[in-house]
């Protein structure tokens, strides 16, 4: 008996034929998203309960979430970090994902549309330089109630930048959400609201876009 107490297996002549290795499991798509409070969570909704996380679970993504509440393409918010800076500090140093989603614009209120357009275009140029083979999807401002006029101007500015940088643009402003899906703050989605947003995102991605075309001149 071996001193170690471990019983050594004896070779089986019948099993001497070469064995084919088991196929490797398919890799889950790596998806990264940068955004504002709709993306990272707000109020009672945690990061893992947002529409992005729910969509990731449904589609089998490996998700990395970046950004912060109150931020936008131009507005740095209370954390003093625009989307571009969030991308640079939280995502750009990582291996290239299969898909990057940039979601926001809600916090770029009182900002001229041309400034939003330039900031969005600069960010998308940076993404394409860093990750030339990554698919990019841009989601415009999310508004769970009736959106003000300036939100449509911001939406159009972002859509133009996405179109010029050959990114897919998705437009949530065309949707009508029930007030029962909005938190008492009148802005952010409830957990059920995030479920509806996730369904919208999954459907929009499957369709290749929202059909919204930016207005030109």
Automatic annotation (TrEMBL):
Q: Where is the composition biased (Low complexity)?
A: 8-19
Q: Where are its TM segments located?
A: none
Pfam families in the record, alphabetically? Lipase_GDSL_2
Residues in SGNH hydrolase-type esterase domain copies: 34-195
Q: Where is this region: Disordered?
A: 1-25
What protein name applies here? Lipolytic enzyme, G-D-S-L
């Amino acid at each position: 008996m071996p001193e170690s107490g471990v019983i050594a297996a004896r070779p089986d002549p019948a099993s001497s034929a070469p064995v084919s290795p088991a196929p490797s499991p398919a890799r889950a798509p790596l998806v990264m998203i940068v955004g504002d409070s709709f993306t990272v969570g707000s109020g009672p909704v945690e990061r893992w309960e947002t529409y992005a996380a729910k969509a990731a679970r449904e589609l089998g993504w490996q998700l990395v979430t970046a950004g912060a509440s109150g931020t936008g393409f131009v507005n740095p918010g209370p954390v003093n970090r625009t989307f571009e800076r969030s991308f640079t500090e939280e995502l750009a140093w990582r291996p290239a994902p299969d898909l990057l989603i940039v979601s926001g614009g809600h916090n770029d209120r009182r900002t001229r549309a041309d400034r939003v357009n330039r900031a969005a275009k600069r960010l998308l140029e940076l993404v394409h330089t860093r990750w030339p083979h990554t698919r990019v999807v841009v989601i415009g401002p999310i508004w769970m109630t009736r959106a003000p006029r300036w939100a449509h101007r911001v939406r159009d500015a972002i859509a133009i930048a996405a179109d010029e940088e050959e990114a897919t643009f998705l437009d949530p402003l065309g949707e009508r959400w029930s007030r029962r899906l909005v938190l008492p703050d009148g802005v952010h989605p409830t957990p059920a609201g995030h479920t509806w947003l996730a369904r919208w995102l999954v459907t929009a991605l499957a369709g290749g876009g929202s059909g919204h075309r930016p207005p030109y001149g």
